[in-house]
Amino acid sequence: MAGATSSSLIWSPWQATLHHYNNRFHHVKGYPFPCHAFHPICNSFNFKRRFSSSILNDDHVITDSSSSSKKQGRLSMSGCGCSWIQDNSMVHPSATKKCSALPTKTVDVSSVSDLFEFICSGPLVDKIGITPENVGQSIDKWLLYGSQLCRLFQLNELKLTIPQKARLYHYYIPVFVWCEDQIALHNSKFKDGDDVPPLVIGFSAPQGCGKTTLVFALDYLFKTTKKKSATISIDDFYLTAQGQAQLREDNPGNALLEYRGNAGSHDLPFSVETIEALSQLTKDDMKMKVPRYDKSAYSGRGDRADAETWPEVEGPLKVILFEGWMLGFKPLPSEVVKSVDPQLETVNKNLEAYYDAWDKYINAWVIIKIKDPSYVYRWRLQAEIAMRQAGKAGMSDDEVNDFVSRYLPAYKAYLPTLYAEGPTGSDPDRVLAIDIDEERNPILAT
Hints:
The chain is an alpha/beta fold. It contains 17 helices and 10 strands.
């Protein structure tokens, strides 16, 4: 730090704060911050630019704004769980219980001490095996990831509110760190020179809880860290409009199979073909288009999107992020599902084929857990009200109730088993279970 103490160098308050904590944290609370986390920044005489979301180093971020906007195009704000961006959500008390002096107003994330303690107070830290020492040794990465996500969500990283800060540092970044560890474990099982297939991570979470936004953020972080990734959803594998019509005809009077959604409304051979093809993208010169579904087709009944509009991914893929509201659901005894809803019996029978089509390909799991399935109704209602207020076509309250009612029986029947046992064939050590509250924030499991 000799250069940083030169009398010719004028420090900003931001730099002085970092210098202060760089010296202090080698001796305080037993949290050793390694010199490498600070010295490259100090020696550059350019602290603030290193972490400014508006001018991040091009080696670490996606600079193609058109690419970013195209990716954002898939992220519908309806039901995506983005209320935290507008600071409409609150942080659950348990999420900050370790922090003795948590700020109650807008904070400056450039304060390394504040950020360090905030990260360590998160409800996922212990669960994913992150210690204070780990955080101290990688604080530069946490800052970089935070800056990248601020750019993605168009947030001012120096003026984050508590809900915004919690969503990034208590949720998205810890999950990303866990995913990186899973990739490293996966890659360690192969020898040098082997074609390493991408790791498939499954994200099972109820509708409206923010899983699409989470996957969107993770995909962006993978790309900015130079790891090629692909995202797929169970929605991408719905039957075509013609297949849906046949499903309704084959199950007259069954409201659970009248529209897309429940087991039986997916093209399982098509999903197997897609996942296996993606898993073979292990070389630089390999690429393929990934299917997408158009929910607006046929007056909202939906249809598979034109293949010309499908996004293209290139190898070598490192990770496939596979998300869906019913991933990991497993068939139950007939009398159990009939007690929930007699119409669920056919859905339960259809579910028998889903393990071989989806779950057996998933190597690691993120299970987002909710206390009450009725949260889904509230989240969907919020999304539709927001759409109507924005002047867009949205479902009425009665239509929302009808829509959600077609999914609630499956939630009530299958979520308890998923939460208690995990997905069939999954390794408990490779399952990250995250409890969230009604505001879609992670909480400490009770």
